[in-house]
Description:
- The structure holds 2 protein chains of 2 kinds.
- By secondary structure, chain A is mainly alpha-helical.
- Chain A is 69% helix and 0% strand.
- Chain A has 6 helices and no strands.
- By secondary structure, chain B is α/β, with parallel strands linked by helices.
- Chain B has 5 helices and 7 strands.
- The interface between A and B is medium-sized, with 16 and 18 residues.
Amino acid sequence: MNTKFIAIITSALLFVLISLSSSHVQASPVDTYEFKDEVTKIRFNALTKELRCPKCQNQNLADSNSPIAADLRREVYDLLNEGKADIEIVNFMVARYGEFVLYRPRVSSLTYILWFGPALLVLIGIVVVVMVIRKKPKIQAEETLSAEQQSKLDNLLKEK
Amino acid sequence: MNKVIRFIPLILFVVLGVVLYRGLSLNPTELPSALVGKTFPAFALYTVEDAKDLKTNADLKEGIKLVNVWGTWCPSCRAEHEFLLEIADTERFTIYGLNYDDERVLAQKWLANLGNPYQFSMFDEAGKLSIDLGVYAAPETFVIDHNNVIRKRFAGPLDANIWRNEFEDLINQILAEQKAGK
């Protein structure tokens, strides 16, 4: 009885494991590229992660199944084999598809607000906080009583 | 001074509201082409009609050229096909097809059945010229002037309305430039 129970549990676990691993395989497109060395492979993976698929805008080239992404992956592969540098490949893509293909936009007058906007907002926040904190003592000073008022208050308290 | 400060949150809210509201009506698939103003890229491709007929830039006629990217897998290309046939009969420009990611037999059937508005169609199976043109979806239409400079890229199916609003003036402008000898 006990062994039967264990057998059922193990087979159930195996089923879950297998279905999990197979779904993982299906998740991203499979290309069969052969790289001349490990460095090229790493560069290929890095580049296809950094470049956006122009058709399916919220995916990078590595993740997308669309035909254009497959074509562009092959283009990246060919350019790597031609011995092009990473920056040359990125420039190649930008020349054709525009700055838009870069998931990490370059620093230019158009993208200043993207790059420096958050820092600017933090700075403004700090300035506001500092201003608010600095104001407090001033208000307290106004609220202290004059000598005349103080003596009046003392008298009132004494009477009680 | 204090009164002005009190209004800052309201002003920020209105500004942010206007920006975000305008963002709602933007079309994220409408991208500026990186190629407008550049020379039409060099190519050497066989035609859809004949697998042995190699065409290069030298085979494009003088004057204004329209290059229309199409594929039999693309429903919008089917939608604009009739309109292309309508405008093909003109002296003002010549239309060339760029068949992208397709099968030759299917493409030949398509042209035989629906009519052929193109001077010829380049068969770009590997997408080489299409990538050089920054094509990411079909249909797309490029306007190339008499100096082989890309003047416009339009993504999406053409119709009479779009033609009138987006192309007519540009074609006339290029014709005028051509006459002036620019």
